[in-house]
Amino acid sequence: MMLSPDQAEGDLSWTQSDPESLLNGLRSAGCTSDEPAEGEERPKCRADQPLSREEKRRRRRATAKYRSAHATRERIRVEAFNVAFAELRKLLPTLPPDKKLSKIEILRLAICYISYLNHVLDV
Predict the structure, then answer these.
(1) Taking the CA atoms of the chain, what radius of gyration do you get in angstroms?
(2) Which pLDDT band holds residue 99 (cuts at 50, 70, 90)?
(3) Can you tell me the mean pLDDT for 66-76?
């Protein structure tokens, strides 16, 4: 279950199965179906209040369109990352040349190869 950063775990009255405690929780939030008496203003429900910037962002991110666009961007980012590793892999000498290396092995081998080339230049 996701909680907002400003919401305590104990503030979960809507998850309780007791209808009376649920109704009390709604009353404390000002969200009851009781009509106000004549001349009284109806208390505003949290849903009637303007949303904070963070809440707007959270709701926008919950849409299927946003998630789909985010997944596409992430897929493109990972693909570019993998292409960069493949290009780096082509520049590194290994025996056999077509040996499959993990990303960490590619990075470690690149560090060793750069150190070797620096040593060759110094001599």
Answers:
(1) 29
(2) confident
(3) 95
Indicate left, alpha or beta for 37 from its phi (over 0: left) and psi (-120 to 50: alpha). Answer: beta
What's the whole-model pTM score?
0.51
Q: Are 94 and 109 in contact (CB under 8 A)?
A: yes
At 36, list the tokens: 């106000």
Which alpha helices (DSSP H) does the chain contain, by range? 19-29, 53-61, 64-91, 103-122
Cβ density class 42-62: b for 16+ within 10 Å, e for less: eeeeeeeeeeeeeeeeeeeee
Instruction: Note the Cα 110 to chain centre separation in Å.
Output: 32
Contacts of 59 (CB under 8 A, 6+ apart): 51
Query: Residues 90, 69: contact at Cβ < 8 Å?
Result: no
Read off the tokens for 34: 């009781």
